[in-house]
């Protein structure tokens, strides 16, 4: 039972990332009808927003400390971060330590700007083009963004730690009546799951309970009729593209302590996220979230040694096997809508 609960927690952790990325993908496809293969790159850019802020906060100047000497007796040069000079040593160290949570605020305007620039500068020219053209151009854009990040940040993963207070693990099993140290789970992974729930809930609340969201949902259902009512639906859909980019970017920011950012991390998640979208149903936001958590949990259980001893390599293909089974029995996915990508 303890192994099952631990794998369930791991599955919710993976599913959170899948669900957030798939949610943004579905927002773009549901509103604009664009198959965006550059969405994984937005996840990667969000992660490197956290890296960039950490480096900015760590910028320092050099001073000579006469009280500290090297082995030759010369005064040592020490580096002091500028934030310590501006806010004091204790406050400065706290700000640097909390660079990842602070990067959420740092990334929001950046991701919104990148989303708007992508949609206005490139994506809008492919609205009426075949999906194959959209895939080719957005995949090419993803490669370009990936190489730009590789040029500036290098090819190696960059460790980006969580705040000191959340680097340990929580004895989850004690709460459920198990012996101590049976189910130990990292604090930050639980925070990531909670963060994902907040973002997903906020997106659904925005679409469900605001006038802007109601108009967007109406435009997703019947774009032409909404336009005939005098509403600039294209402008609203551009804002939704920015929102989808922000969701992907924030998912990347908070994922950095779990998986050190590297230039190809967007591609690693992209294929899996599209499988999640297809399984959930093209254009279905609830389906994307449901499929994200379902496939994350299944992948986690498939990685158990007991399962792999019976079916070697099953953890590498379980998501694709489930996708095949679901699409054979439900061609539109779990919650797909009639007419989406069926023309």
Strand/helix succession: HHEEHHHHEHEHHHHHHHH
Q: What fraction of residues sit in β-strands?
A: 5-15%
| Unreliable parts | none
Number of alpha- plus pi-helical segments: 15
How far apart, in Å, are the first and last alpha carbons?
47 Å
Number-wise, the strands total 4
CATH fold annotation: ABC transporter involved in vitamin B12 uptake, BtuC
Keywords: Amino-acid transport, Cell membrane, Membrane, Transmembrane, Transmembrane helix, Transport
Protein name: Branched-chain amino acid ABC transporter permease
Subcellular location: Cell membrane
Family: Belongs to the binding-protein-dependent transport system permease family. LivHM subfamily.
Protein traits:
single chain, about 350 residues, mainly alpha, ABC transporter involved in vitamin B12 uptake, BtuC, two-stranded antiparallel sheet, two-stranded antiparallel ribbon, 15 helices, 4 strands, about 5% strand
Structure in words:
The chain has 343 residues and is mainly alpha-helical. The chain has 15 helices and four strands. The strands form two sheets. Strands 1-2 form a two-stranded antiparallel ribbon. A two-stranded antiparallel ribbon has the order 3-4. Strand 1 and strand 2 form a beta hairpin. Helix 2 crosses helix 11, helix 8 packs across helix 9 and helix 12 packs parallel to helix 15. 39% of the residues are buried. The mean pLDDT is 84. Keywords: Amino-acid transport, Cell membrane, Membrane, Transmembrane, Transmembrane helix, Transport. This is Branched-chain amino acid ABC transporter permease.
